[in-house]
Amino acid sequence: MSENYFKTYPNEEGYFGNYGGAFLPPHLEAEMKKITNAYYSISKSHKFISELRSIRKHYQGRPTPVYYSGRLSNKYGGRIYLKREDLNHTGAHKLNHCMGEALLAKYMGKTKLIAETGAGQHGVALATAAAYFGLECEIHMGEVDIKKEHPNVVRMEILGAKVVPVSHGLKTLKEAVDSAFDAYVQDFDNSLYCIGSVVGPHPFPMMVRDFQRVVGVEAREQFMEMTGELPDKVVACVGGGSNAMGLFSAFLDDDECEIYGVEPAGRSLNLGEHAATMTLGKPGVIHGFKCYTLMDENGEPAPVYSVASGLDYPGVGPEHSMLKDLKKVKYDYINDKETIDAFYELSRMEGIIPALESAHAVAYAIKLAQKFPRQSILVNLSGRGDKDIDFVVDTFGLPENPK
Fold first, then answer.
1. Cα gap 309→207, rounded to integer Å
2. What is the CATH number of domain 62-91+213-396?
3. How far apart are CA 100 and CA 129, in angstroms?
4. DSSP letters spanning 302-338
């Protein structure tokens, strides 16, 4: 994408077209302006950029590779490639922005990082960043997700983070965001709220996108080197949308690339049984910003569900909302059964166990491969499935034989 795009979106008020902004109580407006000014100032400095690049290379293990899934492609058609963010340190793309946010906190003189987490990958990544920089860390997580994602809870605690169980409402990601934001309000002088996706009030959708752009920059160069051309299709799962914006950002100017954001259809498309926000939602305000939102009959954020804890959010990034309206990205959905099938299929065909979030994108890529057998498909494999294996086997069992 041309640099003019990134200078244009968001605008000074934090809007991506009609979406974004910062709907905040007065006592937080000044703090958000401090964060915005610090980010604009620090992120352009040679010292900040050099330190972040060094961290990515020597600590995170970047660049992560692009891998051709030969057996999967031979079975279903198409040419399926995976951007292996599961090989990024901590096992997902989340560390890309967590190291950036923690570095920003260090430069601002903050001593504590606060965040929410759903699947636990953002929590693990932020706990890792806090340990690296010697900062306190507090992670808020719904009790339902704590049970589902127990391995990640243990990892956060081993890394020195305080995990705060959230027991109200549906006890999942939305409630974790509410809880983390309340904790941040009580101590914003010493803390930085490190939002885990391209959501929230300005400047967070911009900051997280910018830190995740490394995924798309690498993937584009790697794919061109491997094949001599751009992919026909680009695919990523979308909850809040950080891994997707990271990959999509490099291909938005390329009309020959069709871009797909894949949401969770869950158990059904009845309200409360899915989190297909872009498909079934409408513009609204949630957690201090405007985006497509799933709402109940009272105009409040609706209950949502996904087999993947990192995708069960009733909102979505404001930049995704704009890209939907501009028809730059096609948003579609995959249900739980298709996700579990893809989880096992990639595991047994390629020896790669994907996160349930990423399995949504893999499932959609398999569909595309069957429909377009001569085309190339680049999938962001946003995370590995270590965190999900106990839940998947206990809930769905092991298939008797590979398909």
1. 23
2. 3.40.50.1100
3. 9
4. PP---SSGGG--S---HHHHHHHHTTSSEEEEEEHHH
Structure tokens at 99: 């190291």
Q: CA-CA distance, 83 to 102, in Å (whole number)?
A: 25
CA distance 57 to 37: 27
From the list 249, 346, 289, the residue with the least C-alpha distance to 3 is: 249
Give the Cα separation of 83 and 222 in Å (integer).
Answer: 9
Tens-digit pLDDT profile for residues 153-175 = 999 999 999 999 999 988 988 89
Q: Cα dist. 240→2, 35, 145, 318 in Å?
A: 24, 21, 16, 9
Q: What is the pLDDT of residue 119?
A: 84
Distance in angstroms (rounded) separating the CA atoms of residues 17 and 22:
14
The residues near 190 (Cβ < 8 Å, ≥ 6 apart) are: 110, 111, 112
Sheet holding 289-293, edge to edge: 15-16, 19-20, 289-293, 282-286
Give catalytic residue positions.
Answer: 94, 116, 382
- The reply to whether 62-91+213-396 shares the fold of 16-57+94-205 is yes
pLDDT reported for residue 175:
92
Tokens describing residue 177: 């965001």
Determine the pLDDT at residue 401: 58
Token representation of residue 51: 């330190």
d(CA 191, CA 135): 10
Structural domain boundaries of the chain?
16-57+94-205, 62-91+213-396
Is pTM beyond 0.90? Reply is: yes
Fold assignment, 16-57+94-205: Rossmann fold (3.40.50)
**pLDDT tens-place string over residues 196-229:** 999 999 999 999 999 999 999 999 999 999 999 9
